[in-house]
Amino acid sequence: MGGPATTEATAQLTVGAIQPNLAAAFNNVGITADTNPGAGNFDGYGNSWSEQALAEVGLLPGVTIGHDGVDYTWPTVPRGTADNAAGGAATVKLDGQSDRLGILGSGIGQAGGTITIHYTDGTTTDAQLTFPNWCCTGDPITGGADLVTTARYRNTPSGPANFGAGYRVFAQTIPIDPSKHVLALTLPTNTSVHIFAIGLGH
After folding, report:
1. How many helices (H) and strands (E) does the chain have?
2. What gap in Å lies between CA 185 and CA 166, rounded to an integer?
3. Is 23 exposed, middle or buried (0-12, 13-18, 19+ CB in 10 A)?
């Protein structure tokens, strides 16, 4: 598990600065139907995850994914609309206590950035989030994230392609202070870090 990168510091958030949930911070269309691939642009070149390839490995809209003691909910938004947060540094609401925070996503290339965990007592903790490249099966997995699942192909702007290359979803688990109540999470600024879901451990 990747550890906090800095010591705690006092900070205050105004209610208006917090998005009500991660979906409110979605700013990238990363998943498309094989019949309408032109709607997506996960990697900056018009390529995207295939909804059908993800379904083959159980990633259906709204499904619960358990990994390392954290439950994630796969995005439920309609295809062709924003379904992940690519950087942006939005602050999104969380609510609970746990010894771990989990983040589900992928990178374009190995991609990282700083996240900030905000507690209700006004303190914060920074940590480093790093996801490996979404492609390919043979690429190394480094930076503290674990492989969750692999889809066997992706969509290009003209349709399904790259069969057998493997397009990967990762999770990184970050230790947090279990004695404190989590208020919110600030996402990285790096737009190559794509986040599909977040959760607190159980």
Report:
1. 1, 16
2. 30
3. middle
pLDDT in tens, 41-79: 999 999 999 999 999 999 999 999 999 999 999 999 988
pLDDT digits (tens, 9 = 90+) for 31-44: 999 999 999 999 99
C-alpha span between 102 and 68 (Å, rounded): 8
Alpha-carbon distance 159 to 98, whole Å?
42
Contact 85, 28 (CB under 8 A): yes
Beta-carbon neighbour count of residue 142 at 10 Å? Answer: 9
151, two tokens: 């889809």
| One-letter amino acid for residue 25 of the chain | A
The position carrying tokens 């507690």 is: 119
How many Cβ atoms are within 10 Å of 160's Cβ, its own excluded? Answer: 17
CA atoms within 13 A on the CB side of 70: 28
**Torsion of Cα atoms, 101 then 193 then 148 then 43, to 10°:** 160
Please tell me what DSSP assigns to residue 201. Answer: B
